[in-house]
Amino acid sequence: MRSLLNRSLSVLAVASALLAVPALAVDSYPSRAIRIIVPYSPGGQGDITARLISEKLATSIGKPVTVENRAGANGIIGIDALAKAEPNGYTIGVVVASHALSRAIVPQLPYDPVKDFTPITTTALTQMAMVISPKLPVSTVQEFIDYAKKHPGELAYKSAGPGSNSHLFGAWFADAAGIEMIHVPYKGSGDSMPDLMSGVVQMGFDTLPAVRGHVDSKQIKMIAAGGPDRSSQYPNVPTVEEAGLKGFAANSWGMVLAPKGTPKAIVDRLNAEIGAILRSDDVKAKFETMGATVVANSPAEAEAMLEREEALYTDLVKRLGISITN
């Protein structure tokens, strides 16, 4: 009887010790370096955001924070690596709005963009601008729509590639406005600018940082802010919705994600640390130069946003027939 009691007590002791391990890991977090996966090439807004965070996070937690660019397949390679990482807070990632498009665009996506991740915070919101060629004899959204209706199928909108958010916004605008336009994909924003300036393509949605210099030099015309709000840099330019297309909102955003199953205490710690970094004056100023507004919301708010955006984009992709081949 005593032997059975001793064995039972031993089993309970081992079980208690095992249960204490995760708690101990959380209490001692972080005890080593943190890796931030960026599933895009260096130089983009996701990469810049990760590097802004990594430098200050390393100082605040007293541990190294490294940035690892894992570009390829429109972000899928790096995001898949993040989804498969240990959910212990030592591997996190920074994604942009195209993450919410991926499941609708890629049929055999190796992860679920919502269910396989735990959002930590939304970093910033970057407004898109509706820009047109200076060759067009129009200056407002309504004038552009009227002109397009008089020239059905003759006007083209540019994008950063099939299945990109600029592809989605161009197709969404054409559908909402009831006009017929041709989609012309490019490898990126910079590649498309000469054709927009010369009138080879007539319209496109792009981030403010990418077009601001061309707008200010009058090489292209900005006739609307993507929305939902006007740009603080161009307060006299109305949004597309104000111009009459109700419910239209073209913007991009960044978000810090952790693998699904990351302990809440660690997510909350990272949210507090990263949120403080994003709200610091110098980081806010840096984002403003990129045409972005810091968000720094809670994990629950970031999760709700990701779910909303994924649902919206999935519906639009299906309704508009958007794919990576058209």
TrEMBL record:
<dbReference type="InterPro" id="IPR042100">
    <property type="entry name" value="Bug_dom1"/>
</dbReference>
<feature type="signal peptide">
    <location>
        <begin position="1"/>
        <end position="25"/>
    </location>
</feature>
<protein>
    <submittedName>
        <fullName>Uncharacterized protein</fullName>
    </submittedName>
</protein>
<dbReference type="InterPro" id="IPR005064">
    <property type="entry name" value="BUG"/>
</dbReference>
<dbReference type="Pfam" id="PF03401">
    <property type="entry name" value="TctC"/>
</dbReference>
<comment type="similarity">
    <text>Belongs to the UPF0065 (bug) family.</text>
</comment>
<keyword id="KW-0732">Signal</keyword>
